[in-house]
Amino acid sequence: MKVIYKITYPNGKIYVGQDVTDSINYFGSASSELIAKDFTREQRRDFTIRKEILWGSESATTKEVNEKEVEYILALEANNPAVGYNQRPVFKGESEPLPNNPLNPTPESDAALRGKVRGGAG
């Protein structure tokens, strides 16, 4: 199964990525240096992240998976440095989280987002 996932870090920032093998042990390729800047050495001693599968497909092409990943990155603003760790596509707005895009979404807001993204699960 090919999946789009969201990683949530202890500070509420997110990373959206894809995994074409649906590995339970894959947590993305976000920049370690970028993430490390947000946490002290003490905070790194007890560090929990969450992985959520946002979308999955058995039959999507590589192109479709790539497009779906970008859709979720943009919809969740994961490329906004104030919100997430995605560096592509390059964020072109202001680096402030928007009121309608909370860093810790509720199940209801996550479901609403999935409805906005074409073909989302949920």
| β-strand number | 3
Number of helical regions: 3
So what's the overall shape? globular
Secondary structural class: alpha+beta
Please compute the radius of gyration using only Cα atoms. Answer: 14 Å
Secondary-structure element order, N to C: EEHEHH
The mean pLDDT is 85
N-end to C-end Cα span: 17 Å
- Which parts are unreliable, with pLDDT below 50 for 5 consecutive residues or more? 98-104
Helix content range: 10-25%
User: Strand order across the biggest sheet?
Assistant: 2-1-3
| Count of domains | 1
Largest sheet: 3 strands, antiparallel
Beta-strand proportion: 15-25%
Task: Tell me what you see in this structure.
The protein is α+β, with helices and mostly antiparallel strands. It has one domain. It is built from three helices and three strands; from the N terminus they run ββαβαα. It has helices spanning 32-36, 62-76, 107-116; strands spanning 2-8, 14-19, 50-57. A three-stranded antiparallel β-sheet has the order 2-1-3, with helices on one face. A hairpin with a 5-residue loop joins strand 1 and strand 2 (14-19). Residues 98-104 have low confidence and may be disordered.
